[in-house]
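User: Here's a chain of 136 residues. Predict its fold as tokens.
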Amino acid sequence: MTFPIEKPDAEWRNLLKEKGAEPNAFEITRRAATERPYSGKYEAFRADGTYHCVCCGAKLFDSATKFDAGCGWPSFDKAVPGAIKEIRDFSHGMIRTETVCAQCGAHLGHVFDDGPSDTGLRYCMNSASLEFQDKK
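Assistant: Prediction complete.
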């Protein structure tokens, strides 16, 4: 799968380091690793603003769509239209839907159909794949 923004691994590593991203951000965003539950900086974070891809800066979620799913990762019930691509994930003996940034392909997390709102969705994201911007 190709994306509008593509870089070699060394460039992604340098970019994340320059941004001061979490130490595990490269493994999560570029290698589809997962942070431990309840360990991410945005899991219990509440503020008015927007969540963006830590790799390319694309807007992914509005804070109004964030909710406490009790799963240990930041959860949202609606993504910005066109911001996320979904990929079938058969890893770890499960069938899931992986979510990646539509601009750069960064692994974000997974989406499930057990959300509490009218969308019925729960975008379960890794904090290390996100960066928050206050509403101005």
